Amino acid sequence: AQSVSQHNHHVILSEAASLELGCNYSYGGTVNLFWYVQYPGQHLQLLLKYFSGDPLVKGIKGFEAEFIKSKFSFNLRKPSVQWSDTAEYFCAAPYGGSQGNLIFGKGTKLSVKP
Amino acid sequence: EPEVTQTPSHQVTQMGQEVILRCVPISNHLYFYWYRQILGQKVEFLVSFYNNEISEKSEIFDDQFSVERPDGSNFTLKIRSTKLEDSAMYFCASSPGASYGYTFGSGTRLTVV
Fold this sequence. Notes:
The structure holds two protein chains of two kinds. Chain A is mainly beta. Chain A is built from no helices and twelve strands.
């Protein structure tokens, strides 16, 4: 079955530390991949997306992600986190079907200590 | 920036009652979705809607649930005979096309007591 796996349930970092959140997907077709962020008490917001082309994707707020086809991975990175990056991060991939419904990973909660 | 609007932000209902969750998608979007997130768990797909009909639904979306786009503007999720386990945050989303990133609403927190 199609699935999205996020390796880390909770990550705690100090400000200025580098971040990498893992995401693996199992999907045999055309790959569209997304990272969403959910700040405390807020709704899901799109951070970045990969459809095709350059496997290194730049998103908002200094985030980037790299699509590695051979590893079925789409890890999220940020070189230097800030306290305001404290949030939950969700990787998502199409569920299948022509409408591209998304399935989400279980999420990784990021806590950044000031 | 265009938004997806959901009302109410919080709804408390008694078990067995019917609730209607309302959403106003972005006006030029064509695809509409409902997702839910039970506290502490992942975001789960419920249903997608395109061209005035359900295009796909998950196992969660059983006969208890229905969706409607009554007036070309609103997109509603109806839950009949609510159960305690229906308590969750329900998110509406819309998209201009298949496989594009969605724009999510701020959610309705449904509490069934």
